[in-house]
Design a protein that fits this description.
about 15% strand, globular, TIM Barrel, 2 domains, alpha/beta, about 375 residues
């Protein structure tokens, strides 16, 4: 497995524990094959704007490609090491001069390695704001804005009624279909992509109900917008992951695919949702030949620990969202114990999979380095 970690000059008492595996310093003063040049770093940190990051990104990826074409042996060696062990690329970011988590050459290096070695397990942490606390996140997509050219869903998940469906009732005078949560398109919204760094595409819907032709237009709009704003991250989420299959070759690298797996148990799931049962959803998501995936385990339902951990590991997500039912007064769900969820999180962390929390109750996760 290949991922990254944050290096500290004199580790603070509250710093993340060092990851268990082979740690490789890739900062600019080293001789590592993935190091950036002094010129690239200096040009960015003097004024770390979006445009400057775009220039750094293009320059750094071009640098890696040139090194790869000249002599790929060091890259092959790194990939071989990461095949048999956990390898972590180290850098000091985020720093005072470069405070934005995710704007670090190690993230780009992981993207590069994932493209060059499709069979390699590469875990790329998704960018998040400085100061983000894994234990205290009040909203799963707190730093994201929803872009809704398509809305609605027919899976009728019982836990959506107190949240998404309740919010849709506010639209009665504006859009009858929004009010009824009926799947429908808003073509006039295609042009208006929010300015946030993270965009939750069709967040008030399950995009699998979207007509394929319109979904293609949504993806084309993302590609078009990338020409002037390439640093955004887009979330596309569905409880029917097979829907994404025809679009995979058209998705730009800043799109992350998500699915929800509340449990590994199919028995009784029909009383929770009309979505494909968890085992079907798992197989569909695992089968997608796409490098950037995230799993949402929220609201978590009771599960079989060994099986569920195995599922997540085989999917190989960049990270996992984990949380209990946030509306227990509105809907009662068959939940696991806090101790069981704690063990689940620890096993994922031991496997090198980042776990982010929403409604964690008594479950403890390590503080992030961001």
């Amino acid at each position: 497995m290949l991922s990254r970690y944050t290096r500290y000059r004199g580790r603070a008492a509250n710093a993340n524990p060092l990851p268990d595996g082979m740690r490789r310093d890739t900062r600019r003063h080293t001789k590592h094959i993935l190091r950036p040049t002094y010129e690239l770093v200096d040009a960015y940190v003097v004024k770390p704007t979006d445009a400057a990051w775009g220039r750094f990104r293009r320059g750094y990826l071009a640098l890696l490609e040139a090194r790869f074409q000249k002599d790929r042996a060091p890259f092959d060696e790194l990939a071989e090491q990461a095949t048999s062990a956990n390898v972590f690329l180290g850098c000091s970011c985020p720093t005072k001069k470069n405070p934005i988590h995710g704007r670090c050459h190690t993230f780009l290096a992981l993207e590069f390695m994932k493209k060059k070695y499709p069979g390699l397990t590469v875990i790329i942490p998704a960018p998040r704001p400085k100061g983000h606390n894994t234990n205290a996140t009040p909203n799963m997509y707190a730093e994201a804005q929803t872009w809704s050219p398509f809305k609605g869903c027919e899976f009728d998940c019982v836990y959506c009624s107190p949240s998404f469906k309740r919010h849709s009732k506010r639209q009665k005078r504006l859009c009858p279909d929004c009010y009824k949560y009926t799947p429908h398109c808003h073509e006039n919204r295609l042009r208006r992509i929010p300015s946030a760094p993270i965009i939750f595409v069709c967040g008030n819907a399950d995009i699998s109900f979207c007509p394929p032709d319109f979904a293609r237009r949504i993806i084309e709009r993302i590609v078009e917008h990338n020409a002037r704003a390439p640093h955004k991250t887009y979330y596309l989420q569905s409880k029917q992951p097979a829907y994404f299959e025809p679009f995979l070759s058209h998705l730009p690298e800043n799109v992350i695919l998500l699915t929800t797996l509340e449990t590994n148990r199919d028995n009784g799931y029909g009383t929770i949702s009309k979505a494909p049962p968890p085992s079907v959803r798992y197989e569909q998501f695992k089968a997608l030949n796409y490098p950037r995936k995230v799993v949402t385990v929220e609201p978590v339902l009771d599960f079989d620990l060994r099986t569920f951990v195995s599922w997540i590991r085989k999917i190989g997500p960049e990270y996992v969202w984990l949380g209990f039912n946030s509306k227990p007064k509105s809907v009662t769900l068959p939940e696991p114990s806090e101790d069981k969820v704690q063990r689940f999180a620890e096993k994922l962390l031991d496997a090198g999979i980042e776990v982010r929390g929403k409604t964690l109750r008594g479950v403890e996760l390590p503080a992030t380095s961001a």
